[in-house]
Amino acid sequence: MGKESGRGAKGTVHMVKSLVAIGVAAAMLLGLAVFEWFFVEEEFSAFREELISLYDKTDGGTANAEDARVVQGKWEDRKERLHIWIPHNDIARIDEYMAETVRLIGEEEYTLALPKLEVLIHLSECLPGTYKPAAENIF
Fold this sequence. Notes:
mainly alpha
């Protein structure tokens, strides 16, 4: 009987260690998810402000190719940091619209560039929400 109770105590200790390990892993995953959401939101918020500024200049007819290239360059820097967090398809979609916008502004086709900028602004608003730790994004 002494041996059985000894095994029972060892089993209980192992079970407690397993539960603690599961709890720690779950807390780490939750912490990483929250970090991801804040990081992605912060990056897209800054990008959105740059896009809105470019939109205003484009709408006023004062934007030039250099203005558009600056925003594109900042996006290129950001996407290197974001690549680990967001899917390639989302990045490629932004790349495509950004390249079209740069070309159109460079050609002073402002009326054609504005809808592209509107799409980019919309993407910068909605994409971060898809990475928010919420039930609808998990299940």
